[in-house]
């Protein structure tokens, strides 16, 4: 009965460990505390910092290993934070566009299949993030907001995201099974290109200097107008990359 329920709640309240529940509530409130935290920043201020005149490279690390022990953190909170951040930066890009300005920024998402899996998830927060990403990649290009999705798998990444991309870079490791089939669909069944891709060597298998081969599709080069995939070996990073691109004596 209702009286019994009220009695149980009252008993639980009287017998509760106040210190335990204080620590739980403290871990929640610490999500919103900035004072005394090194490098802590409000999300709105972070978006303004990204969209400012002095362009910055900002890395947002949401790994659980970096979270203080006195702060509540789980997958649901992580997905809410990611969704809120993407919403804010999308709105900032739209606002600048209305003022005849472009945001001229690029969002890079590593392990993208974790945030935009092909299969539907029971986690509503994750599904919300995926829909925000899909909507963003469809609508924000004209605002000067670009997207780069990095993933170790093609078959696990939502098709709607893959279909909206203009440039693809494929490294070693997609030449077998369902990954091979997903790759074939993207390159339009070009069997010669697929066979050449399957000849890529594992960069970790070499004893000497490691080489990192890639196959690219899209307007990444003046030579790509025909739609034929291009193949290249990436420069050794960072030494060769810095020397060739910035004319440094390394």
From TrEMBL:
Protein name: Zona occludens toxin N-terminal domain-containing protein
InterPro entries referenced in this protein's UniProt entry, alphabetically: HerA-like, P-loop_NTPase
Organism: marine sediment metagenome
Stored Gene3D superfamilies: P-loop containing nucleotide triphosphate hydrolases (3.40.50.300)
Signal peptide: none
